[in-house]
Amino acid sequence: xxxxxxxxxxxxxxxxxxxxxxxxxxYGLVDFVTKPRSLLAKIQPGMAPADVEAIVGRPPEHxxxxxxxxxxxxxxxxxxxxxxxxxxxxxxxxRVGNVFTYPHREPGLMERFxxxxxxxxxxxxx
Length: 126
Description:
With 126 residues, this protein is an alpha+beta fold. Helices cover 45% and strands 21% of the residues. The model has no long low-confidence stretch (mean pLDDT 76).
């Protein structure tokens, strides 16, 4: 009995690093394949919001004002393109300051399970 358990323990210890490597490289591969590089290369510092909307081809999905109103402080526009969130940060003068991108993905089965069991009381984890 102990020999069988030892055999399975050795198998699990040997295979576990391969599973970790495969799951980590999967995120990197998806980012590499779907990153909207050509679009990001077209958005340059100093562009106006209308120019950025013309490049993307549609109005922003979200607008964030970091000041008291949209006209008195910096703001940003956000789009989801090819599975990535693209956030364009505009300075107070209304020109592009920075462009950020980060992957967007739907929560997996385990993430939904954890949210359901442990964070059921939080409305934003639905």
